[in-house]
Amino acid sequence: MARMINLRIWRGDSTDGGLQDVQVEANEGEVVLDVIHRVQATQMGDLAVRWNCKAGKCGSCSMEINGKPRLACMTQVAAYDDEETITVTPLRAFPVIKDLVTDVSFNYKKAMEIPAYAHPAELAPGEARMEQVDVERSQEFRKCIECFLCQDTCHVIRDHEENKKSFAGPRFFIRIAELDMHPLDTLRNRKKTAQEEHGLGMCNITKCCTEVCPEHIRITDNAIIPMKERVVDIKYDPARWLGSKIRKREGII
Amino acid sequence: MSELERHSYDVLVIGAGGAGLRAAVEAREAGLRVAIICKSLFGKAHTVMAEGGAAASMGNVNDNDNWMVHFRDTMRGGKFLNHFRMAELHAKEAPDRIWELETWGALFDRTKEGKISQRNFGGHEYPRLAHVGDRTGLELIRTMQQKIVALQQKDGEQYGSMESNIKVFAELTITEILKENGKISGAYGYWRESGSEVLFEAPTVIIATGGVGKTFKITSNSWEGTGDGHALALKAGANLVDMEFLQFHPTGMVWPPSVRGILVTESVRGEGGVLTNTTGERFMFKYIPDVFKSIYADNEAEADRWYTDQDNNRRPPELLPRDEVARAINSEVKAGRGTEHGGVFLDVSKRLSAEIIKKRLPSMWHQFFELAGVDITKEPMEVGPTCHYVMGGVEVEPDTAAAIGVPGLFAAGEVAGGMHGSNRLGGNSLTDLLVFGRRAGIGAAEYAKNNGKNPVSEAAIKAAAAKIQAPFDREGGENSYALHAELQEVTHNLVGIIRTASELEDAIAKIAEIRVRSANVSVSGGRKFNPGFHLAFDLDNMLLVAESTAKSAIRREESRGGHTRDDFPGMNNKWRQLNHISSFDGTQVNVREQALPSIPKELFDLFDVHELEKYMTQEEIAKGGSN
User: Which residues from B are below 8 Å from A131, CB to CB?
Assistant: First the structure.
């Protein structure tokens, strides 16, 4: 049941590049990453593509397929019409290294700027008690596989290189939200620093990030919007800010 | 040519999965400068694929559990070929390693009392696996990745630079571990991105490179599982122990072809999933071996009752150790009772509601729905065995994880051998990598403090550089992709789940022939991010691993755990006393027998003598453990 499909692949590096057309066999049930690998093994031995698990769990094979940020391992070839050319291009928000591989070091730098989890000093290993409902809020964000598709699609940085310096991006807003909602974390002012140091205010909640998330994390509704609302509260109501911190501390028993 | 990039560290960790990161944390906390090297981006290592959980006898769900029960289960699962000391250390230290992760921010699922929840798994007597839905590996790797960042932030405050004392070198492949005067001096490799070469000088190297699955055609492993650490260790003069033992996970996806081999977590069975053949028979009842008859139910009614009353019923046979279940599925398919795609059915939809399935097995639901078009809340999955884990690995000293025979070399995690014997229990690998990752970090830190720098000679650098350049200088040679596919056919057909002497002989000859041809691999294109070039080096590693596996397998004339011989179907107590040690003489792998360390009296006494009689000879029983 194999058929030939038309694949258009961006090839090149930081200096020059362009789209190349190839014809390649596709079998029933195959995903875009399968046909890219077939091209690599039979026609273009040096075609650069990142991948690891091929099961949507590691977030390595991020690219743009017909202009949409997607995981190539989770995109069925059958999702496109038989006659349609499938175009694969590197993530646009990050500098190209070669072919479909981009330099995503921006994300790792941002990760280093988010203050780490701070465990209560008085709570010894094994003594933590938390309710399942309380850990689930943060667990949603810890599902993140760091594919960086949300970063790629976010228009604050997609076409505005100059914003990168002051904007951490959706991936790191959910990291901050995760720590902020962590029942045990003791570091204060996470929402405030999200606003003042990590560019939360630049997000205008178009929800593009939520739409591309392969883990279906409700980035905008469950992380960004609640933090934005609370930031406003904190700014105008110091008593409420204090209350929220006391409630959080009471969660530690 | 531009000048060679050089780095100098106290401890060099090769591999950024769970074991490597845990080792790096420990070595940095001991005050040393640490480099972490990974072939992929940081945080993508195969540990993310671990689904079910991390086994530790915390006793949160059943307070009868303790390290002694865990130790017994581990030894039974490994058919008593485990290094007793590793199994002991693992069972004793696993709970502390899990609790420690919580202090670094990990968020495990909870019990009603608010403790870490624990789930049932094959071969574990009590609910023992700490878990986060079915993405436990991701939680572990992310927690440790973030712990590394926390250490970097601390260094940043103290020394002004976050990467001054612990730095991740992502997308870098090590091609050689270097020695001077018989001791470790560093490692040599290339940046995958640019193809340019890098020298690391360090008195200690910790190998934490994971497994070898890509040697096989059907595997749950990603492209990284090419046995790099196994081969690097062999070439550096270390030994591999018991490389014949490969775990074929019983449940990999079988359809469509593009997903063949992708893991279906054992949690599906832990949560009540049932295996049936095409006649509708729940066939596992036919495959309970004598050694397990006292603890596994032999009828459906009792097996079903166990899910609600574990104290008064025996466990369902779907939860037998993985080797037993994989062989059973293989037999059913061979007997013509498999699906048209060569699998059997695994069904959880009849026991659990759609809502609970989506909550407890979210990534399984997602994986089958998006990749196979199957809704597991309504339909059964089609599953079959997939090459998942290598029990064999670098021979190490249990307490320090030091590789035997090479001062300064350490190994932890899947790449190390001995811990799991002939078969690993599910859930034991995640705690293995924490327990022995930490111990390797301590071992390496102590060695580095007691042994100063060991400078790398110019001759060693030249030789390592020449090897990297060689495939570019050849023209019209062999294609590395084609050779890799040939190797995978050989291992799949001749060194797979069921083996015989004649096929293994054939395999050894064919692997040797592919190795000769691989010396003539040529690479098209330049050095910049060139997968054909990368595969040429991975291929060399896989060939050494496959040779070691085939040569160990042909010698072991019995069936035990992850090694099944059609021509020697039973376990043989004589073989339980022997390990196979692989070493490399520069041209080929040589395998010899070595006596297994004998179990001390206090561990011997943890077992009922009648149970040990199934595994041990009369002389061993009479001795009652060494003193």
Answer: 110, 114
